[in-house]
Amino acid sequence: MFLLNQPSLNLLERSLSASTLRQQVISNNIANVDTPQFKRSDVKFEEMLHSELDGLSVEGYRSDPRHFYIGKSPGVNAEIITDRQSVMNNSLNNVDIDTEMSLLAKNQLRYNVMIQQANHELKQFRTALEGRR
Amino acid sequence: MKLTNGFDISSSALTAQRLRMDVISSNIANADTTRTQMVDGKWVPYARKVVTMEPKSQTPFSQMLQSAMGNTTTGEGVKVTQITNDQSPFKRVYNPTHPDADVNGYVDMPNVDILKEMVDMISATRSYEANVTALNASKSMITKALEIGR
Questions:
Q1: Which residues of A lie inside 8 Å of B (Cβ-Cβ)?
Q2: Quick check: B96 contacting A, CB < 8 Å?
Q3: Domain range annotation of chain A
Q4: Among B16, B54, B7, B132, which residue's Cα sits nearest to residue A93?
Q5: Deepest of A30, A57, A73, B85, by most Cβ within 10 A of its Cβ?
Q6: First-to-last CA distance in chain B?
Q7: What are the tens digits of pLDDT across the range B66-123?
Q8: How far apart are CA A104 and CA A115, in angstroms?
């Protein structure tokens, strides 16, 4: 069944789960805004996806499925990175509440856009399946 | 990955900030309390309480298991580890008419600084509001996800 296995839907699904993960990471940053020595984290996904789609990374040729992946991984997965370098205030905490709130809003909007896009694609399938009735 | 993980993270922070608020209220309410407990026949004034927080993380076993399964794990929010007494010295106020004054007429008053408490209170309120916003964002995202394919 290849109908629902389109690359665009798979991509949307992966982006949605990355966005959900980012929501949790940002929530955690906001939750720890008053915790001494807490270091903020972020989710790295878009840059990796971008380089994957551009084909900028070198990919090793695999002649056997048991071979290691060289360069590219089989799919882009979201990654959590923690910023351990910077310091925002005297408690060695580096959560900037304004940045976090704007990231939260941005992530939410992006999520809504992707939901809308997924709905649109599914509607197209429905049209294709039912025809004009 | 649990669906409502974002809720748990934000609500742990709401709990922590509310407790912080309660402790601040207690500090302000007891700003003039001179009798907390009797030590060697002398009343000890109220000592300012301070809330200590730390990030709540999964148990080491759960962390290992999740990373072995290739899942990415986020933090689990925040928790209050302890409520401690502020060790700074008590304020000594000259007030010979006070029943708890010593022979020289000085009274030990609590080490509560109302200004400090007010600033802490604003900070706790703002953090609480930020977490409510994050919770609402998580909620609207999940509501939106339920609409896929409608």
A1: 16-17, 19-21, 23-28, 30-36, 38, 41, 77-80, 97, 100-101, 104-105, 107-108, 111-112, 115, 118-119, 122
A2: no
A3: 9-131
A4: B54
A5: A30
A6: 24
A7: 778 877 778 888 999 999 999 999 999 999 999 988 899 999 999 999 999 999 999 9
A8: 17
